[in-house]
Design goal:
alpha/beta; 27% strand
Length: 408
Amino acid sequence: MTPPPSNKMSLETLIVGGGVAGLWVLDRLLENGHQAGLIEANALGQGQSVAAQGILHGGVKYALSGLLAPGVRQVARMPDVWATHLAGEARPDLSGVTVRSKACHLWRTDSMKSILGMTGAKLALKTKPTKLALKDRPAILRHCPGDVALLSERVIETPSLLRALSERNRDHLLQGRIIGGCARGDESTSPWVDVEVRGGEKIMLTCNLIILCAGGGNEALIEMLMPGDDLHRPAMQRRPLHMSMVKGPTEALPELNGHCVDGAATRVTITSSTAADGQRVWQLGGQLSETGCERDPEAQTEAARSCLRAVLPGFDVDTPRLSWSSYRIDRAEHRESHTTGTKRPDDVTVLRTREAIAVWPTKLVLAPRAAAMVSRLVGGGSGPSEPPFRDLPTPPIAEPPWEDAEWN
């Protein structure tokens, strides 16, 4: 299947974008007999996937008002779906994925908004939080007012997830940049793309169907591959985040995964990872990251310090043993029309046009649902084939954001 001298190849189905959603879609289509391949311009997971905090949540962020919107109820089903894959009981087998924690903590401050938010979460969640006795709380949460609960939400290392998904289908992955093409086919022509690979080599790749799973990259791909009236093309929106990070030795920065609730929002979501140098890293998401888009890095660090003082009484935020950093990331999502605002979609978006399928999974935990929806749309394939990209460059796994951050 190595390209002939004419540098032309053909596939049944081409997936563009090597994040968690694209890799999961690829695996599902190969299982269903599709002659499929995936193209990634940079590194697998670069952008949203590798920056995800890795919580396989069941809707706590959307349950704080005591109600779950109909679309969000899909999120509540996802932890059970992931459990089967992480146990190796379903394809893709993800038993090799690193699970940082089998549960998250849920706690509040002493504000009335926080008390009401905790009550709403207890009312609406499918799996109810389990209240912890004071002696069972981790030391870092023993000074928190009110209840501290345990929520059965696993926390995984997303780089290990990307590795597990990609190693299964390595020869179906190509590192290359799409420089032209058309997703529209008819009786005389098939959809095609021109791909530039390492060393400047160019390949013309024809297929029956193109599936766009490139996150924020979908916007430019739609513009390139779907020429015509904007009103008939999928529209995309970006909702930015300014994520904070804290790094330090394990004795100064204990393991912690969970949410501090504040009214109808998570004031901060904290997840722990281990950096390549052995130090622990906290990622700080939630409301802190959403409001942080208006702040520069220095102001965001000060906001993060202030937030941790409020939500973790007794934690030494000011010790010089801690380093601080931040990064910006956009959540790429479908926009219902070209005229509506940036309201968060409740569910996965999988749009079939006459040109292609565009996929926005909205959040990491919904990637299996996105793959299942694509699979239902395209049906079964014509049968397995030789891996198409065996002798071509394979994209590497992206580094998590803390590995190339500037720490202060």
